[in-house]
Prior knowledge:
10-stranded mixed sheet, alpha+beta, Beta-galactosidase, Chain A, domain 5
Amino acid sequence: MIKKIVVINLFFGLLTFYAQAQSNTRLSVPADVSTWITSAFAKGKTPPLSFVYDGKASASFLKNWNYSLQKERSDDSQIVRYTVTYVDPASGLKLDCHIKGFKDFKAVEWVLNFTNISRENSGVIEQVNVVDFTAQSRAEGDFTLYHAKGSDAKRSDFQPLETVLGSGEAIRMQPNGGRSSDDTGFPFFTLESPDHTGMVIGIGWSGNWFADIRQTGRKALNLKTGMVNMKLFLYPQETIRTPSTCILFWENEDRMEGQNQFRRFILTHHSRKIDGKFSEYPVSGGFNWGDPYPCNEYSCLTEDFACALINRYKQFGITPEVFWLDAGWYEGTGWYTNRGDWYTNVGNWTIDRERFPNGLKPLSDVAHKVGAKFMVWFEPERIYANTQFLTEHPEWVLKHPDDVNNFLFDLTNPEALRWFCKYFGDIIERNGIDYYRQDFNIRPEPFWKLKDEPGRIGMTEIRYIEGLYTYWDYLLNRFPNLLIDNCASGGRRLDLETVSRSAPLWRTDYQYGEPNGYQCHTYGLNFYLPLSGTGINKLDPYSLRSSLGSAVVLNWKLTNADVSILDMQKYVAEFKALRPYYYEDYYPLTGVGDLTGDDIWLAYQLNRPSDQSGIVVAFRRKDCRAETLTVKLRGLELEATYTVVNADDQRSINKIGKELSEGITLEAPARGSVLLKYHKVKTGE
């Protein structure tokens, strides 16, 4: 769980927290982001960042360093770019702060680069806070932090949390083990002041980030973000980057208006674009996953069977938008081998020619022929003992004595990284792969720490994360139509940098097909990330609606008699019709906190300002005694009339927005669901 630290000795706690003085900012929505940037980073002013250099806090010297501010060229009229540079004339340490302002969303974000431009090793750089500033509220009272759990393959993954901050109390958030949304931390959160002004924060770092938050008085709150493990010097001419941090400012009595601004911001500025347009993540279909022992994953799949299944989907009129080949297609995974297991053969990145004699190109060719795309699973960073990569390039792996079976490909090595990029890029090209799925089933932090040189804590992590971004950017540039599915034991590597390049089509490894957990994950993740997917295993309405979202994986087996072709056709059509709602405004209708019980209702609303329509999705779980639930809809025009239709029996009613905002009653049997569709009545309708 995220730890809440209560400081007993308030004076000592504040003294420690403020060893580095920080900038103070009135918390408000900036009228102009350019003005905000040039003011916050003005010459002679303490900027909203801090670090310690050779034992001294940056606030004590940074104003004396050489300073320059350069406005950079921007290809987007809604984005302004600046580089603020500070140079120490004595030691030759240079700090570049690369800042973007988003005029359409009143948001700013920045990342730091440290460069040693001297001919000697730099001094020690530590306690780097990419963001460090105190926000001042207009009114006195308690600030509130809205945050979430990370993913740990539990029903409670992405659980939304609310923490009221009091003067002197501190919250520290960080993930577990080196993956950015693993278990104990989720790098997106919201701060609300007593006067209902706030910030939505997104941290971009696919390793160990941190956020420290403390209310420092009845009207003030301090925010710090950065990298957990960093205390190092730089060699001459060496450069490093830090995590990035985004801050979106909002003001509204309904906090969800700020959350929805952030969702729109993510879709507009931090999601994959192809030919300059938003890229929709797909309805995916697999290849009859789950064959009898000793098969596992796709260790029994063959070229002929895979191609036949693709044609079977077409025969039934349910061709998915992408065919998804998961683990088990590479050497050593065939069920007939001694080690026929997907997990222990990661590192054998050559295609199993016994089952796929012509490679994977015949599969992609058939998929393309029926009008679909083709996606393939990889886990390139983890290498298992005695596999191809370890045997051929033992010098390109990171080791740890406590794990003799798993190794980490060394993305910090420039030569290895170049080879890595081309090797996997060539596999994608030769086999006609349209979408690339990357998994990551290992916690890298112990490997990183072991490789750090003396006096260079955190350097391996920095170079590794830089290498990961270089690799993904290489793929996206080489294949302009590529989409990346980001998996790390489910959704354990979600952050601002990864969601800018990818989306999680399988957001958690929680029990496959368990609908109540899927409801929880949708409910929590949608506060911040509009793009994510999960699986669907059964065709009853309760299960189907539990898997609604912006993407889905069809996990039913086309060779089983216990599924209905007509039901499959109906669900695929309904999913595609409802998917666009998940791209616009989201409203939770049953609060925050622990929503994992089997004795509750869970409900949420998706509202589309673009066409003044929306849906309400609700679930009455099996042990819930309450037959009804009254929910208050949001985002509506109070005086407008809306037609509300029950999707199950097509009954409809007309109500004005004010009535719906005051409450509408839902009714369902135990383990039942409700789907309401509504739209604003047009003149003459």
